[in-house]
Amino acid sequence: MTTLDHAGAARPGARPGPPGAGAAAPKGRKRTGRRLSVRSRWELALLLTPALVLFVLFVLVSIAAAVYYSFFDWNGFGPPTRIVGFANYTKALADPMFQAAVGHNIRFAVLSIVVQLPLTLGLALLLNGRLRGRAVLRLIAFTPYVLSEAITAVAWLVMLQPGGAVDEGLRNVGLDGLVHEWLADQDLVLYTLFVVATWKYIGFGVILFLAGLQGVPAELREAAALDGATQWQTTRKVVLPLLGPTIRIWIFLSVIGSLQLFELVWIMTLGGPAGSSATMATYVIDRGFRRYQFGYGSAVAVLLFAVCFVFALLYQRFALRRDTAGALSGRVD
What pTM did the predictor assign? Predict the structure, then answer.
C-alpha cells in the first residue's frame, strides 16, 4: 500500500496509521494540560490559604470591628449597648485637636517630599558613584533603618534632653545660641521629630534609589557624555526620567508613612506639649486607650484608614497607573 508524503507524492511501503490516530494526540495533550491546571490551582490555593486566613482575621475583621464599635458610645468594658450613629465621626471632625493632628500629618508628608526626597536622592546618586569606601558608606546610611522605632526614639530622647549630647555638641563648637528645648518648644517639636524621622528612614530611600539606579543603562550615560553633556545634564535629562517609577513609589511609601506616624512621636513626646506634635495615630491611642473612649477612638481609626485608603486609590489612579500598565504590558509571553 502507498501513502502520500508531505509533498503529496505516494510513498511505497508506508502503512497508514489506525483511524483517529492523528486526533488522539491533541486530546491526550488537552487532558494532561487540564490535569496540570487543576493541580496548579490546588497548589496555589494551598500556598495562599494561610496568608489569606491571617489577612482576613487580622485586617478585614479588625476593620469591620472598628467600624462596628464606632457607632457606639463605648468605654471598652462590657458589650457596647448605647448606639450613637455617626455622632463619633462628627465629633472627631469638629474637634480642633483632631484637626491639628491631621495638619501635623500633612505637614510631615509635605516636608518628606520637599526635604527628604532631594536629600535621599542626592545621597543615593553620590553613593552610586565611584567612591573609596562606598560599601562602608552605604552601610552607615542604611544602619539607622535597621534599628527599631522604639530604640531610635529612646536614644534620641536622651540626646535631646536639656544638657544632653545635642546641646553639649552645639556648645562645644561655639553654637550656644542654637541650644533649645527641642521637645518642649511647641513651635520646634514637630520639626525636631521630623529630623529624627529623616535620620531613621533615609537609609531605606537610599537603598531603594540605588536599586533603581542599577536599572539605568550605562550606555545612555556614555552616549550623553559623548554628545558633550555635563554630569548634571546627564543626571537631569537621562537618569532622573528613568528613575521616575522608583521616585513615585518612594513618594507613595513616604506619604503613607507620614499619615500613619506613631511610634517615634508617642515614645518621645506623647503628642505634646499641648498636642503640638500629635498625629492621627497618637490621637487614636490617647482617646481610645488612655481616656477609655473606645467607640470614639474606633471612629477616629476608621477616619485614618479612610484617609490612607483614598490617598492610595487616587495615587494609584493618577500617579502609578502608567508604571503598573507598563510593567504588565512588558511581560514575556
Answer: 0.81
